[in-house]
Specification:
The chain is about 35% helix and about 15% strand. With about 220 residues, it is an alpha+beta fold. The protein folds into 2 domains: about 130 residues, no CATH class; about 45 residues. It has a 7-stranded antiparallel β-sheet with strand order 1-2-3-4-7-6-5, with no helix packed on it. A hairpin with a 6-residue loop joins strand 3 and strand 4.
Length: about 220
């Protein structure tokens, strides 16, 4: 049985908050390990603190460089890097735990956090706020050209989400939406095809029109 890292009391199932001392216990995940500093200053600016980001190396089966703010601890990932980190950090998940997913989101969600739009650390254009996956509880800031910004703690939130089966649930949702879209497109194609058939002039009608025109010419 897992125990609280603060008071060593047993942790209840499907929650990471100790019912005795109230401390939130982070899940022990492979991807949450020490990093090495690759570059103390990059040419990318923190969208929150407006200071140069550090480049750190997570060393996932070789160099894995991301940007980090030493002041607010936000992280900037190039396109596809979050998915790579999650794939490397959380493995062997075969089922969904809906109760744990609900508790993770409730425990980590902060009502005091204001909605804000921030600029991309690379191009300085405002990024889009996008929900990551289905029921992850994390709204990421995304620049389609340059990458994704995560506030402090959000990468841990996503790792816990995946460990609780969130990615499995998200993939099922995507498959369902893709199926519905395909069925909808098939129905639309069928309607268009039928419309073309019924709107096409029938051959007898064409003959009758030509004959009527000839009679008028010789009348």
């Amino acid at each position: 049985m897992a125990r609280c890292r603060s008071c060593s009391a047993p942790l209840q199932a499907n929650t990471n908050i100790c019912r005795y001392c109230g401390v939130r216990n982070d899940v022990d995940l492979h991807g949450k390990h020490a990093y090495t500093l690759h570059n103390s200053q990059s040419d990318r600016l923190c969208p929150t603190c407006n200071i140069p980001l550090q480049t750190i190396d997570l060393e996932l089966d070789g160099p894995f460089l991301i940007e980090r703010c030493q002041q607010c601890f936000g992280l900037f990932f190039d396109p596809g890097e979050i998915e790579t980190l999650l794939e490397s950090s959380v493995t062997n998940v075969f089922k969904v735990n809906p109760l744990l997913l609900t508790n993770i989101n409730r425990e980590r969600f902060s009502k005091k956090r204001p909605v804000r739009y921030i600029k991309c650390p690379v191009c300085q254009e405002f990024m889009q706020r996008v929900n990551f996956g289905h029921r992850s509880g994390v709204v990421i800031d995304r620049c389609h050209s340059h990458g994704v910004w995560l506030d402090n703690g959000e990468i841990s939130h996503l790792m816990e989400w995946k460990k609780a089966g969130g990615q499995i649930l998200s993939e099922k949702q995507q498959s369902r939406q893709s199926r519905l879209k395909k069925d909808s497109n098939s129905q639309a194609d069928a309607i268009i095809s039928q419309t073309k058939i019924f709107s096409r002039p029938r051959e007898p009608d064409i003959i009758e029109s030509v004959a009527s025109l000839i009679f008028k010419l010789f009348d």
